[in-house]
Amino acid sequence: MLTFQRFALGALQTNAYVVVNADRTSAVVIDPGTADGALMRKLDGLKVEAILLTHAHFDHIGGVDHLRRKYGCPVYLHSAEKDWLTDAGKNGSARWADVTPPITTDLPDHELADGQELTFVGETFLVKHTPGHSPGSVSFLVGDLLFAGDALFRRSIGRTDLPGGSQDQLSRSIREKLYSLPDEVLVLPGHGPETTIGEERRENPYVR
Questions:
Q1: Is position 104 within any domain?
Q2: Of 43, 79, 114, 143, which has the most beta carbons under 10 Å away?
Q3: Is residue 208 part of a domain?
Q4: Domain residues for 146?
């Protein structure tokens, strides 16, 4: 059975997720905000098949360079943000010098698109383009797990006042791409605690 573990990393306590296959031999890392020791220990002895990025803001990508070099694994990012990894201005790290040094790394190895299906750790990862927090934001649906990045939080949503953000676009993404999922789908956000689609459809004050 597929398992996952959450790690709240860095100054903004950004959630990184390690998704591990049933026989505990391989893993996928989603949004490694830092190369934190606890995260790295979790990966000991595992084959890292890929790094999946829900978007390329600095607090979600700080560990990408270290992990990619250590494990030789490909990085996946939506095409709308394909050059953000190489640009500290676009990924925001140059803007918040009091929080992070400038972050740059190589371009993604593969670009994501809406509706794309990826197979890792013996499971299908369905890519849902959910822009609004940023132009290339995506969510990954794996069975009844939704890795939502900074689109949907428990009783909240991602901020839309950063470059490329749009409140209207984010609301559409949530209503059309996420609220259409079954109630029991577990939402694993980029910050804060988990929730479910059903709970947010009923209780989220920002998008009804």
A1: yes
A2: 43
A3: no
A4: 3-203
